[in-house]
Amino acid sequence: MVARTDVAVVLTDFDAWLAALPVRWRAGQIERVREAHALACEEAPHPGAHPPALAVADVLAGLKLDHEVVCAALLYPKYAEGDLARDDVTERFGESVLALLDGIAKIAVVGDFHQQLNAHGEQLEALRKMLLAMAQDVRVVLIALAMRLERMRRLGAEDPGTQVRIARETQDLFAPLANRLGIGSLKWELEDLALRYLEPRAYKGIARALDERRIERQSYIEEAMAALREELQRAGIRAEVSGRVKHIYSIWKKMQRKRLPFNEIFDVRAVRVIVDSVADCYAALGVVHARWNHIRKEFDDYIANPKANGYRSLHTAVFGPEGRTLEVQIRTLEMHQNAELGVAAHWRYKEGGTAHGSAFEQQIAWLRQMLEWKDEDGDGDDLLDRFKAEALQDRVYVLTPRGQIIELPQGATPLDFAYHVHTELGHRCRGAKVNGRIVPLTYELKNGEQIEILSAKSATPSRDWLLPHLGYLRSARARTKVRNWFRQLDLEHSISSGRQALERELHRLGVRNVNLERLAEQLGHARAEELFAAIGRGETTIAHVVSVAQDMILPPPQVEPELPVTQAPRATESGEVHIRGVGKLLTQMAKCCHPVPYDAIVGFITIGRGVTIHRRDCPNLLDLEEHHSERLIEVSWGDEIEASYSVDIQIEAYDRTGLLRDITQVLANDKINVVAVNTLSDKAAGTARMTLTIEICDVGQLSRLLDKLAQLPNVIDASRRG
Fold this sequence. Notes:
This is GTP pyrophosphokinase. With 722 residues, the protein is an alpha+beta fold. The chain folds into 6 domains: 7-197, Hypothetical protein af1432 (Orthogonal Bundle), CATH 1.10.3210.10; 208-355, 2-Layer Sandwich (Beta Polymerase, domain 2); 394-486, Beta-grasp domain (Ubiquitin-like (UB roll), Roll); 489-552, no CATH class; 577-637, no CATH class; 645-720, Alpha-Beta Plaits, CATH 3.30.70.260. The chain has 29 helices and 20 strands. The strands form 6 sheets. A 5-stranded mixed β-sheet has the order 1-2-5-4-3. A 4-stranded mixed β-sheet has the order 12-14-13-15. The longest helix has 21 residues, at 160-180. The termini are far apart.
């Protein structure tokens, strides 16, 4: 950040401070900041000093962030101490400022995690991602970075143990985050200050070497730039030539990586050339190499071969004036702007990390553009939605009881967590605690929560875990482990359990007279036993089998001679019943059996009411076949079925308060219309029987609904009636 003289006076005098800021706030916004500034000034440690919150706000205002961010930075010390009530913040500064204050408090625990874990490697990377994910507003991360910078500036007053701890946190967490967000002004100062306390001898040695020759080095760079400008102008290349600042941490890092002494680091003396086009880059490179001798093995073409992070530039080192080493970077203006946003200092390049998925890289690029958008848009109020960190919410970061960070897919459950830790723990999982509170296995985990798995002595996974709509498992990896467990069960047990599961589902759906051998053949199995075994092992889901079965229960097509017609046949409309060989007739669903799409059906010609559609297994159809067989006709469902059909379902349960409410909530969530409800309670037995008439689209929807109803507390059974 820019250092100013008499900083305490400037920061505590609001009007003088405002005049020095590069911001454009409206009058109402300025008054809010003035009010927050006055509250912050009450926190001065002693007369004449400026409170840390003022310096933090100054850093953030220097980044041209909005007034809400500056207000939150000014108010946080009072808010954290409990001297500022939530209602008071909302009334005086708005809900956005309150949300920022809560976000700062939430991510403050990340430093504690770092201290407890002694994190490194993958765990350290998980901590960085966790910090970003926990801050639902990206501005919270920026406030945290500014607070950390001010803490580092004041670290000299702390004891040596605290200095090392805070510096290590800064180097591991905060400097890399500043790097990812492309805020170079914060990144280099955080890195230099951290090195000052972690490697004091190296820091002082490099600082002394730089200081001793600063005037000489500046004079040398000016001479080299003048010579290069003259050569480029003579070659007809329009270019901007400038000196490059190399910071102490960068020099130390290169000395460590290349195992070189200070005087052999080429880019201590460095210039940058910015030209108009890629062709000019190579032309400028030719001018540089023609003017000075190139140092072997010190040339990198990142234009032809960009880095994995997208960085593009030409790097070369030459023996410059007086034979001293000089590094030259050549790039276009577009390349330079991209690098200044942080691409050149991307964490995988500077921090030596490994490659990550493109989705996460795109999200980080989104965050980096924030400061650029602020510069382009005078009024930042409308930009806030762009800066939300929901883009990072494809992952969730939780903790084991020992404090290890586990990365899981967004929406993961305690069961996903158990299988991630160890396959056997997942198999034996019977419950879970989140932050000490027992939760269901379908609970959706949130960032920063600590998970404890409650396990049994033996492994007994449930096949319900494999049903996606029940919500037990989110990750495909965990579902594969469950399937593998069932696959290894005894074959006879698999056949028995698979047969029971299929028969139970078909019975529950009211589907009868299915040829199981033919069904197995349709699914690629030689015998029905193989199908049962596949279901029992979890290789084939009941839902898939039912979807094939419902196609099979359609009546087989009959070949009939074509009859001459006087008008073109009308296409079967969505949800209609098609009557073979006959034009469009009035049809209605029989109220005795309530057929739904893909049930096996037959039509009965009534007197004056068209054709009534019955299920083939309807009890009333037996009497009709015996006495009125001549009035039965073949019918089939139309090709596209989008209409709703009434069906009766029956629910048996142990009676309890709120049972009907929970059932109707499931129906409402699935957007299923309820036509009628009939409830009968047996107070002596403590049971309840409910019959509901609902409207569904197909058998698959009915199957999913019955599964969800059966999962409700106290429900004994849920099945189709009739």
